[in-house]
Design goal:
The chain is an all-alpha fold and about 110 residues long. The protein has a domain of about 70 residues. α2 packs antiparallel against α4.
Length: about 110
């Protein structure tokens, strides 16, 4: 008798294991942490923008998207957001960094 973990549960286990592999931030300056957090926030913001834009686009009911297509589109949007935030094209991360830097320096 073979017992297998249900798919959604195994995905959660995989995500939990990935969290255990997050590198420690000892020795990393507060400035670098702030810049990384600002970039991550910009990436999340861009991803949410893309997600909302896709919801408002007009799609034909003749060829509905499969679940696989939806997952692929979501992952593609995530990569677009990361690349856009990394390039600094929106400039949001720099504004967040400049706004919060004095507060980090006081610490």
């Amino acid at each position: 008798m073979k017992i297998s973990i249900p798919q959604p549960l195994s995905a959660l286990t995989l995500q939990a294991n990935q969290l255990n592999k997050i590198p420690e931030t000892k020795g990393v300056s507060d400035d670098a942490k702030l810049r990384e957090a600002a970039n991550d926030f910009e990436a999340i913001f861009i991803q949410q923008m893309l997600k909302t834009m896709r919801k408002t686009s007009f799609e034909s009911d003749l060829l509905p998207k499969s679940e696989g297509e939806k997952v692929f589109q979501s992952l593609l949007d995530e990569q677009y957001a990361l690349l856009s935030a990394k390039s600094g094209s929106l400039g949001l991360s720099e504004m967040i960094y400049q706004q919060l830097k004095p507060k980090v320096d006081k610490k």
